[in-house]
Design brief:
Heat Shock Protein 90, 3 domains, 9 helices, alpha+beta
Length: about 450
Amino acid sequence: MRRPASLRGRVTLGVLALLSVILAGLFTAVDVALSARLHADARTRLTDRVALAQQLQGTVSGQRLADRLRGDGVVVRLCVADGSSCATAASDPPPPGAGRPRGERPKRPDITPTATIPVETAGSVLFVRSTLPGNQVLTLSLDTTQISEAVNRLIVLEVAGGLLALLLAGFASARISRAALRPLEDMTAVARQIAAGDRGQRLDVPRSDTELGRTAVAFDAMLDELEAGEGRMRAFLSDASHELRTPLAGLQASAELLLRENPGREQRERLAVAMVRESRRAARLVDDLLTMARLGQGMPLVTERADLLALAAAEVERARSLSPGLSFKIGGDGDTYVEGDPMRLGQVITNLLDNARHATPAGGRVSVRVHRDGPRVRLEVSDTGPGVPAAERALIFERFGRGDASRSRHTGGAGLGLPIARGLAQAHGGDLTYLDTGPGATFRLDLPAAGPAQI
């Protein structure tokens, strides 16, 4: 049989198969147990009557004894051993209730247990033979055809009832599974609508406390995140193309000027310097974009034990040479070792110092402090610039985000420095935050401290 293609069909088929196995096992067990019980009762009936005959022998005549033993399908034959005379009693029982008041159940005679009497079988007939005192042979027989017919009738009823139960179970299972799996069909319909261009479709299930309800809620959340990610990607591409257009436009203008005119040496040098400056700016932007992409995919880090204070001191010397009009101060205390990539950590510090240099006016001061705080090592970079307004503090960590007061294309760059710095900090198991500590801006780099050095 071909396997159903739909989940509902497979569920219904699985329920019917399981129910069929259960019913078959149950009916078989009932039939076997009932047949064994009825045959055991028939054997007990014969052996009990043989014991009763042994007790009554000598107190009643042979025919009276045969009549006493008959009934319930038992055929009695009592003969003298030489076969000269026999007394028989048919198995037809007396009419129901005959010889006893209405509602009174017949009493079973008291029977003294005797030795085990073997019951023999001949086809469908059970019989026992026993020699009684007075050289008499008692033969009791019982036809079990009625037992077999009763069991067969029960089997027919079980089969008919089982088929009806399977039919009802299949119908109920199909209805229940259809109702239970409706959220999946809704998901399929929504997915097709979204694939067709209708991106605003959602499931909006009324209940989220079921398995499918939680799946539908997760499906809606996934769609929201995908749409948000798509929006961020479009904004990123738009901002990146906008940022790249500026240096490329400068390169194009300088190149066209060199081609159209025949400038003098001094002007050619100015144009060459401008082209080098714009090409470096474009290259830096491309590097930043590549770094952002790698951060999103999991940037590989070459980790080793590094002194964050020593890395900060080297970057401060670089910043001091680039901005001689500013005052730089660095200090630290405690064990400032971390496990990280020295090159990437230096890049974080460089971004923080460049951000501080561009935001600090001439004659200002940039301070760097590195210290141990329990299981963490913290680096704080402060400046005496205008600071970041409260409304813009979340924006500065967004890609291409800038604060209007101190960051622009001319003074700060493309707006990728702080997002890259935060991404690198998080890749090291830390974070980069803005501290509202008063005048100027303060950024804190928080990293897990390194363990004891291996000797």
